[in-house]
């Protein structure tokens, strides 16, 4: 294969290189792609050697630059999505445009709940993420109250008058 050519890259390798270009770590890429971090590293290592790059960041840069079909498009000051919308009369919004922006805490809570639920298994339920977090917090609060009551009763029974 000719260095710099991305024709032989698999779809997973292309997706991983795109996420590297967005400054994602192997762990973050693994979560998004559904692989282990070590597998992601292997895909990126193969893609790096296929593209003749020095490292994964360089490979991502080469891959992204090769995706631009028109060299003059690089000189435009508009993002590609704006340029594409101007070129077509009826443009439907993409999924990223219709989603509400999420803050870092929302993503962190979603990941924690997903990890916890998938880790312990069980039957799927129809609770939202917020309802699941509330249920977990309520259970923790109830357990703390019961433990405090047991300790109090034990101390009261062992108390010498």
TrEMBL record:
InterPro entries: Sig_transdc_resp-reg_C-effctor, Tscrpt_reg_LuxR_C, WH-like_DNA-bd_sf. One of its GO terms (biological process) is regulation of DNA-templated transcription. Residues 6-63 form the HTH luxR-type domain. The chain crosses the membrane at residues 135-157. It holds the Pfam family GerE. Signal peptide: none annotated. GO terms for molecular function: DNA binding. Coiled coil: none annotated. Keywords: Membrane, Transmembrane, Transmembrane helix. Gene3D superfamilies: Winged helix-like DNA-binding domain superfamily/Winged helix DNA-binding domain (1.10.10.10). This is Two-component system, NarL family, response regulator DesR. It comes from Sphingobium xenophagum.
């Amino acid at each position: 294969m000719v260095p710099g050519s991305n024709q032989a890259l698999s779809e997973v390798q292309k997706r991983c290189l795109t996420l590297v270009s967005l400054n994602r770590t192997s762990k973050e890429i693994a979560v998004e792609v559904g692989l282990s971090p070590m597998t992601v590293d292997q895909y990126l290592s193969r893609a790096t050697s296929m593209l003749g790059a020095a490292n994964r960041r360089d490979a991502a840069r080469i891959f992204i630059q090769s995706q631009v079909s028109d060299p003059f498009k690089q000189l435009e000051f508009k993002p590609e999505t704006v340029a594409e919308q101007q070129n077509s009369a009826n443009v439907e919004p993409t999924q990223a445009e219709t989603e509400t922006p999420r803050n870092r805490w929302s993503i962190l809570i979603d990941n924690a709940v997903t990890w916890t639920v998938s880790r312990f298994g069980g039957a799927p339920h129809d609770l939202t993420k917020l309802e699941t977090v509330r249920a977990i917090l309520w259970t923790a609060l109830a357990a703390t109250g019961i433990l405090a009551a047991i300790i109090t009763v034990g101390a009261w029974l062992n108390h010498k008058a």
